[in-house]
Give the backbone structure.
Amino acid sequence: MTDAPGLTVAQVLAELDELSFVASRDMKAAMTAIEPFGPQGLADWALAGRDLFLFDRDAGKAFWRASARLAGVTGGAGGWVGQARAFISFRGSWKALTAYLAQFAEAHAVFGADGVLEWGAVGLAFARTHLESAEIYFSLPPARLAGGRGLAGLHELITPINELVCARGLPAGLALPGALDVRDAFGAAAVAPWAKRGADILRAGRLRGEAFFRLEGQDSEEALLQESPGFRSHEHERFLGLVAQAVFGASPPLRSLGVRIGKRPFIETDGQSLFMPAAFPDGEEALAAFLHHTGHLAFGSYDAKQLDALFSEMGMAHPPLDADQRITWRPLFAAFGDDMPRFQLLFDLFEDFRIDARIQARLPNHVPRLLALAQVVPDGAVRPYFEAAVASLEMLVGRRPLVEPWSLLAGEAADILTAFRLARAWYAASGWPAVTLADRQAAYLPGRSPNSQRPVYPRKDPFGAEPPEPEANEGGPAAEAAARAEREATGGQDPDLEIPPEDTSGSGGRVGVGRPQPASRSQRRPAKRAEQATGTAYPEWDYREKAYRRDWAHVQERALTETDAACAQGLLAQNAGLLRRLRRAIQAEKPQRLTPLRRQLEGGELDLDAAVDYVTERRTGMSPPAKIYRERRLLARDTGVLLLADLSTSIMQRAADGNGQVVDRLKAALLLFAVTLEEIGDPYAIAGFASKYRDAVSFYPIKSFGERLTAHQRAVLGGLSGRLATRMGAAIRHAAAQLAQAGTSRRLLLILSDGRPADYDDGGDGRYLHEDTHMAIKEAADRGIHAFCVTLDPGGGAYLERIFGRGHYVVIDKLNELPERLPQIYLRLRGA
Amino acid sequence: MRSLIDRLRGVERDIVQPPEGRSPYYEAQGNEIAVFEAAWRKRLPVMLKGPTGCGKTRFLEYMAHRLGRPLVSVSCHEDLTSADLIGRFLLEGESTVWQDGPLTRAVKAGAICYLDEIVEARTDSTVIIHPLTDHRRRLPLEKRGMEIEAHEDFLLVISYNPGYQTVLKDLKPSTKQRFVAISFQYPGAETEARIVRTEVEGLDGDVARRLVAIAGQARALKDHGLDEASSTRSLVYAGSLIAAGLAPVEAGEAALVSPITDDLDLAQALREIIKAHFGA
């Protein structure tokens, strides 16, 4: 370094002139702005620039180009010059430097003159361990880093990440963008556990870890769910379901939309299920939204006939269907072109009002709740829509007079077509400001949401009449999972919007394939096959013929070969507390369960009737035996039970609460049942069943009546898995034959199922196997066997009464309770 | 009038009493009165079916009053033996004395005998009613070696509530088919509101209607964790608590939620329904 600053600057300029014309021009252009720094500052600046240029041409150019602006922002202070120079220590750091220089002005504004240097220092520290992290850090908007709290905000974000960088070598840049979102959504305290979890996952697998930090995938979903504040939908599914059951007489299946950061919690629907956001700000909004959307399903917003009428109103013969037989909405709105959001808003405004009016008639606090939630009125173009919605709701609760057009929608006679026509009339009358798609969501009251988010399955049956497709259909769980994944993938943003408009005009265009035709079912197994079928043949009831089909279903007894002793042990250990409680309950019950034996020769108390008889007979001169006591003694209960478990594929589904599979609870329940019954001492047997076509109904005996529970049987219970379908009637007939051998006078057939009877070859006629199962139950009753069904299907009430009869089934809609409830149900059934 | 009733309260009375005073309040839901009267004219035994608290007992009280016959009620439990129904020998001083049981008393006096929840009783007691329920209309008293020809006006009525705890205790078909059955359901909304209003003195009609609306929705939760749905009786209780000055939401909690469930989600759902109708 030379003594005379002026000389240095001249030297640098001369040097640059030789190297690059552009560089020296850039430097000269910036020089005037740097002059206020004084001669020494100018010299330092020039040297820094030169060094940077020699280190990396792009770095140098970026430095000179940014200089004028930065000098203007900072005034005389040259801290940035030193920091920029520090980038020389890192090979290939020009990108990071460029980002630093580009964000410096904003950082200065956010953090202040001193803070900005600290901001820079943090980034340089990142660069020391991982240059890319520094690049990412500097490219993040400083305002977001500060989170509205200046340097304190920056530190609360960086500190937990820095700890992980030191302790576990986590690349900071990987975690930073996600951490910002997490902090925005869930607060600063959520960042540390989230990042820690991410670091763990990253260690387990790089791809999984990276996906986690991008806030994608299952791991991230779970972590974010844990952090979600407010009302977490998945924890309250049963509560919501019960409310819907009470209000609408049925509850829709719920699916998760996952965590959506920074978006309003809109419920979506495909006409069958509701797709719930992971969290709502509070329970009130969640409940309002849930009821509103269930109302759409219950009051015909997605009814096939209504939708047909809607599309024919727009001159389309049939609603266009996609490959999955869903109606896509875009063609309906195609006529409105770019103005579509405006029409959709009006349409939704009327249709939502119609639905809320119907719900209000059943739940008098529905509209008041919606109004209480709608406190913050949005600004901008959407304001009139929002205000119209509020005003219309106020009419429903008498705060304003109910006037047209709203009065036309407030009765049971109104349907979605009424709403559509009104929307067209209002659209034509104009006066409603145009709205962009992006703004649109602000127009909806809390609890409401756009009604045409997803393609919908038109509803053929009224809500609650029939659950959707039967469980056993083409393909196994894998095919179903794939189909579901495909279906879910189309959610989120309006898939219609991705279709080019030219494809949506006319009566369907590319998206429509017209009316669904019943798929022609190929007879995949020739009837002849059954003739060679092995095993025990049972008749099957054909309700259409009102006759039995002789030797129709063939049951083969097979042994389950899969065992998992560790799993059985684990499940028993896991449920040790529950088991202890059950044992205690059984023991506590024992004295009461003891049947008093009357007229005994000895015993604990006098039998009054016997004593009086004795005295009477003595008086009359006879010498009766002195049987005047009664004693309570354990009397072997004369009840034999066969537990028949449905082992069809559906038990392999993930549990609705997201923790594990249905089969896990099933295993636990069977194990606890077995252990409890060993304790009680009642004769019992356990068997499973599954089926594929009528000639292959598999019956898996797991434990028979005579034997005690062995370690091997436990291991078999531990290794249970699902397979194939549910031909319940044949299995029940076979089980009834086995029960006849139980040797007890009271015989109970306990059927544990998770869905309706169905098989691959029932031709889509669900009723056939229903009726057959019903007949099998009647046959069992004739043999003196009581059948009772424990089902995990929340919609079971709809068909089980017809099959098993009133009071002969119980729906367990809380899967977690199954292990506890199953032994209890048995105890209750057999009588205390 | 009031003083007369007061004098009767807390006083031992014989179980066979001809009906007196005003007729108990009963609101017909369907043709049950006509069916019962027809069965009465032909002295056919009657089975009342229906959920708890829907008015079976009240109906019978009403019919007994209407027909002017005494009513003898026996609540059956699992230790109830035939001796408890028919009677037994008792020691009195140096001799034994036969004491008639309630059923025998009713058979002799020509009363209506009501065996409530008959499935709960031991099987030996259900069998002894068989000869009473067919053309013989006789009650055998084995211990005394005799048989009683039923009084001309005697009528046997049982109640039976099919529920899942009684699957194994179901009445035998041979028992069931001896009866004429009348099925009860919870009354329709308007009827039920009228019942609640009549039962609870001074209850506002609007409150009664809301209570009924709550019950209607709560009953949809049967099979979803509720073993017994909100009964008309529990609505009357809730109405009484409100009439006694309790806030409606609290009254609902005390009469319609806490008694019927310990399940948290279910209780929350029920509370939500009550809140919906009574606001809060």
User: Anything to note?
Assistant: The interface with chain A takes residues 78-79, 81, 83, 88-91, 95-96, 143, 162-170, 210, 213, 217-218, 220-221, 223-225, 265-266, 268-270, 272-273, 275-277, 279 of chain B (CB under 8 Å).
